[in-house]
Amino acid sequence: MTNSAPATTASVRHAVLGAWIGPWSRAPGVEAAVVYSLIVLFIWWIQLWFRPFVVLLLGAVIASHVIRRESPRKIGFRLNNLRACFAEYGPLVLLIAGGALASGALLHTFRPLSAGTALGILAGYVVWGLFQQYVLNGYFTNRFMQVIHGPAAAWLVPLLAGLCFAGAHALNWYLMAVTFVAGTLSAIIYMRSRNLFFLGIAHGVVGTALFLVSPDSIAHHFMVGPGMMK
């Protein structure tokens, strides 16, 4: 009986700790950290002398999915719940985009662009948004979910996703603030719906609205990395 008390206390302590942070599997976390470091290095240095490196980096990410037997559908390239995503999260996207456009109208910060040009920007932004959501959520959020378990995952995984997304937009403080909020929110939606198509469209709609109303004096023409030094 004397020796059982410490063991019981230790077990309770371990159970409480495990319930909050969960078991950590090193491989996905290390992999994500290496890939993220390479992305940051590419933005700030590698692209200045070897732009094709991004193809190699994307190839490594795709190879990671193949090795882990993650199908496109499992990653989030799915259509079966797309309508449900629009029904559940579409109003929030329209509220955010509409709020941005309304603020632009009130503050007279709309860019002098034609409707055709704005639609072209929207189309391009949806494609670019889908790619960014794939990297952010299809890859990084997935890896974070493989590392963090238990109740903590519900808030810690989106927080890490938001921080990573914001960090990739340094030193543009306006974009860092926007992408932290957007990255965190998109990770929450991804964890619930696992649909990258919806997130790509939402990214394009909100991103276009912000581009149309954000003055370059604070948005720096949406440049990041070395582009901020020009």
Topology readout:
Blueprint (H helix, E strand, L loop, with lengths): L3 H18 L4 H19 L8 H15 L4 H4 L6 H26 L7 H33 L5 H15 L5 H21 L2 H18 L2 H4 L11
Portion of residues in beta strands equals under 5%
How many angstroms separate the termini? Answer: 72 Å
Q: Supply Rg.
A: 20 Å
Which stretches of 5+ consecutive residues score pLDDT under 50?
Answer: 1-7, 12-24
In DSSP terms (H or I, runs of 4 or more residues), the helix count works out at 10
Shape by Cα distribution: globular
Please give the number of β-strands: 0
User: What is the element string, with H for helices and E for strands?
Assistant: HHHHHHHHHH
Secondary structure category: mainly alpha
Characterization of the model:
- α7 runs antiparallel to α8.
- The N terminus is likely disordered.
- It is built from 10 helices and no strands.
- Helix content is 75%, strand content 0%.
- By secondary structure, the protein is mainly α.
Structure in a nutshell:
The chain is mainly α and 230 residues long.
Keywords:
10 helices; disordered N terminus; mainly alpha
